[in-house]
């Protein structure tokens, strides 16, 4: 029977904290959890959650994943804990790691997440930073793997802002050998260090393409993916970004230019009629709600590996 393997890294801060084999192992385990072929009892282990930004999917999927594994969660609200008062991260991390067995953190600066990991004696998980959303990428590739058995045959086109979600898709895609295309307006390209790292992993520059032309980017694509144009923390840029992203909506026309069996993903929450139309989100091509469900299965797999 498949069992969770211990991971080489203690933390999951970036998609790059897993090796290609470890990503495949987590995806396989996630499928086992989803199909009820495996049951793990973590014996009341405790996951601490810190959300400096709002969350529905990540918060609830971690809570349910932990409860399905026989553990519990503590959701620390920054406004009612001392986190919001500005207690130093190094103090919070050292205290929480004496109570909790693992900590998942959603915050702004990736360096703050790294500071938590530096001082925590327990595994730290990235529940989204401005740089990456690696738990999302695991669920995304689980969803893609359910449709396409050989990931190396897949062309994934992300249309939108090259930030956290796109960065993790690029890195996880590179580990899995998936062709990843990013179509974004000029000035919204993914992080250059992420692009450089992905090229090093692929050893073939043709497998990652960054373009400003959505129509050519979706040609032959098997998966179309988008995310909000204005991320959490960018609320004051909304008006400007809405203008800059005109032409980058996943609509019926864009889907029509992709492979005829292409599926559509969105990490959610969506601004319907901005980055994606109602028609596409609710169409038979959409796997968006399977993808949201898969957050829970992927995180069950990740937690069981980190705590094994
Ligand atoms: N996709 C995602 O992380 O959703 P939440 O912001 O609701 O957690
Ligand atoms: N890019 C989005 C993702 C939300 C899950 C944000 O950071 O708000």
Structural class: alpha/beta
Q: Which CATH class of the largest domain is shown?
A: Alpha Beta
Number of strands: 9
Low-confidence stretches: none
Strand content range? 5-15%
Biggest sheet, open or closed, and with what strands and sense?
5 strands, parallel
Number of domains: 2
The neighbouring-strand order within the major sheet is 7-6-5-8-9
Q: Based on CA inertia axes, which overall geometry fits?
A: globular
Arithmetic mean of pLDDT: 97
Per CATH, the architecture of the largest domain is: 3-Layer(aba) Sandwich
Instruction: Write the CATH fold name of the largest domain.
Output: Rossmann fold
From N to C, what is the helix and strand string?
Answer: HEHEHEHEHEHEHEHEHHEHH
Bound molecules: phosphoric acid mono(formamide)ester, norvaline
The helicity comes to 40-55%
Query: How far is the first residue's CA from the last residue's CA?
Result: 15 Å
What is the CATH superfamily label of the largest domain?
Aspartate/ornithine carbamoyltransferase
Number of helices: 12
- Rounded Rg: 19 Å
Q: Which oligomeric state applies? A: single chain
């Amino acid at each position: 029977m498949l069992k969770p393997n211990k991971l080489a890294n203690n933390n999951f801060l970036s998609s790059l904290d897993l090796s290609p084999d470890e990503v495949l192992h987590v995806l396989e385990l996630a499928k086992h959890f989803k199909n009820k072929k495996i049951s793990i009892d973590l014996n009341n282990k405790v996951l601490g959650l810190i959300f400096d930004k709002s969350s529905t999917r990540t918060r609830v999927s971690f809570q349910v994943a932990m409860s399905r594994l026989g553990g519990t969660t503590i959701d620390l609200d920054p406004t009612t804990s001392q986190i919001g008062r500005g207690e130093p991260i190094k103090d919070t991390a050292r205290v929480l790691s004496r109570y909790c067995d693992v900590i998942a953190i959603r915050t702004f600066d990736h360096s703050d997440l790294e500071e938590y990991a530096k001082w925590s004696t327990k595994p730290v998980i990235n529940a989204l930073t401005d740089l990456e959303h690696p738990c999302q990428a695991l669920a995304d590739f689980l969803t893609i793997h359910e449709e396409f058995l050989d990931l190396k045959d897949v062309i994934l086109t992300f249309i939108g802002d090259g930030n956290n979600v796109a960065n993790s898709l690029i890195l996880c895609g590179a580990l899995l050998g998936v062709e990843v295309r990013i179509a974004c307006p000029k000035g919204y390209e993914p992080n250059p260090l992420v692009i450089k790292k992905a090229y090093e992993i692929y050893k073939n520059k043709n497998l990652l393409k960054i373009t400003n032309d959505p129509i050519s980017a979706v040609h032959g694509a098997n998966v179309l993916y988008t995310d909000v144009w204005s991320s959490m923390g960018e609320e004051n840029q909304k008006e400007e970004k809405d203008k800059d992203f005109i032409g980058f909506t996943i609509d019926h026309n864009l889907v029509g230019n992709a492979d005829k069996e292409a599926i559509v993903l969105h990490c959610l929450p969506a601004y319907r009629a901005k980055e994606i139309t109602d028609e596409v989100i609710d169409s038979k091509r959409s796997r968006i709600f399977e993808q949201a469900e898969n957050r829970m299965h992927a995180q069950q797999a990740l937690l069981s590996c980190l705590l094994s």
